Amino acid sequence: MRRIKIAYGDAPSTFGHLYLPGEAARGAGSAPLVVLVHGGYWSTEYSLVVYTGIARALAERGAVVWNVEYRRVGEAGGGWPTTGRDVVDAISALDGPVTDQLATAQITVDRKHASILGHSAGGQLAVYAAARLGAATERFAFGTVIAQSPVLDFTETGAFDRPSVVALMGAPFAQIPNRYREASPSEQEPFSSTVAVVHTVDDQSVPIGMSRRYVAEAEGRGQSAVLYEVSGEGHDAFVDPRSAASRQTLRVLGI
């Protein structure tokens, strides 16, 4: 396994870590590709390293992993809409510098069935970016977007009044409701990926009812969406490769 740092922009936080699985892990055929978007309240208190264990676990199973960083609240340029745009740009970088590295390493990936995976705040960013991209870049198509214990509706009570969401948006909902709607996955036009929400039942940070409502409403407006509930674990289980939540995520990925 190798990890390569690749810049997709000029700002210090516009980069990602590309994980290349070893030949034995890849086996024959094309490797699956997974984009990771880390969580952490959209804040500089957390970075892409919180997903390092998951990235390594996926690469050990033969996946090519693109673990992306983005500008967050607390640094120059962080906050909406830049944070969302960074994730769109990071995923679009698959077509350029990431593809170049794959060619150098002589690794072939399954471009028609790539996946995007995001935890918590990263779940919101993953679904938002997939919607904005129309579930594809020029060279890659995303069949599944997995959101782990996410906040997917910025227009509901319990979401728009969260301090982390207000900090991301830059002002309370009552002052800039259209900005909240523009950022909210629940307000995006349907796109061709399936949004697979994996939520821990005992989550004390993001109540599971939020995901139940999102999935029901998404299906009603024509967005393919499914909910997987994981009992006995909380919000942070998704950053532990050994957890039941991570095992469920692997099943959804098919890795």
Protein described:
There is one protein chain. This protein has 255 residues and is of the alpha/beta class. Helix content is 33%, strand content 19%. It has helices at residues 23-26, 52-60, 82-92, 97-105, 121-133, 163-169, 177-183, 208-220, 244-253; strands spanning 2-7, 15-20, 33-37, 64-68, 114-119, 142-148, 194-200, 225-230. The chain has an 8-stranded mixed β-sheet, with helices on both faces. Helix 3 crosses helix 5. It is globular. The mean pLDDT is 97.
Which helices and strands, and how do they pair?
Layout: E1 2-7, E2 15-20, H1 23-26, E3 33-37, H2 52-60, E4 64-68, H3 82-92, H4 97-105, E5 114-119, H5 121-133, E6 142-148, H6 163-169, H7 177-183, E7 194-200, H8 208-220, E8 225-230, H9 244-253
Parallel strand pairs: 3-4, 3-5, 5-6, 6-7, 7-8
Antiparallel strand pairs: 1-2, 2-4
Helix pairs in contact: 3-5
